[in-house]
Amino acid sequence: xxxxxxxxxxxxxxxxxxxxxxxxxxxxxxxxxxxxxxxxxxxxxxxxxxxxxxxxxxxxxxxxxxxxxxxxxxxxxxxxxxxxxxxxxxxxxxxxxxxxxxxxxxxxxxxxxxxxxxxxxxxxxxxxxxxxxxxxxxxxxxxxxxxxxxxxxxxxxxxxxxxxxxxxxxxxxxxxxxxxxxxxxxxxxxxxxxxxxxxxxxxxxxxxxxxxxxxxxxxxxxxxxxxxxxxxxxxxxxxxxxxxxxxxxxxxxxxxxxxxxxxxxxxxxxxxxxxxxxxxxxxxxxxxxxxxxxxxxxxxxxxxxxxxxxxxxxxxxxxxxxxxxxxxxxxxx
Length: 333
Prior knowledge:
This protein is of the alpha/beta class and 333 residues long. Helix content is 47%, strand content 19%. It contains 13 helices and ten strands. Helix 4 (105-113) packs across helix 13 and helix 7 (173-185) packs across helix 13.
């Protein structure tokens, strides 16, 4: 046998061995998951306060998964440190599919915004599936003498550091929307972080803060009622539920675009079969016509991806937000 043939044979043998090892690893991962999963209650940890989009959609998805899989899905709120406290809790949980993380792009932002965290999102978690995304709405309290975005920018420039904006905490989509606005409009505004969006929203409605970026799914009704003044939405195109409100880019901050999205993750090491089962159930839920219609009426658009696609999406979102953090100069409070 020639050297070339021997080398080829060795290559084939190595490939077969590698394929066998991969198959064995996959079989072990599959076998690690009980066939009757879930056979007891599953916790969905929301690392944000009650009342915001993450909390609302976690409860909705919990109800839907409970109906689909026949076990209770219990939502627990563990807010604090811009989602880090609750996220760390899940990172340290047993990877058996019974403790899941309700997450948003706050987690992908924190990968570059917060240097010292007790976990690494891409190393300590595995993506299950996304849920939906929505635009944000920039709203001001009626006492703020700005009828449009151009007037708000002019007001901020005339009073450097005097205008403040609320957010649900450092690194959250609301915070980063404000920091991106600050950088792109070249204005000096003050960030006021809260432990959750409900507290920020309450103080905005009460006039304790001047403005905030909030999800259209939760702030639209207030804007329609005139309780706050909606100046712009943050998507690439106008929101279907607020067609008369311009985008940030249309209103004077060219190129501005950001959204909030939600999804579920599990601790690294969670059996592949459990991840796949949850992903399949969630995909069925978010693609139902009646649910898509219900969410569209609130300004939310469903997202569906395989676990591998979602993992790739997470990786790209970490890179995207790292660039925005650098551009905005945002710092953890």
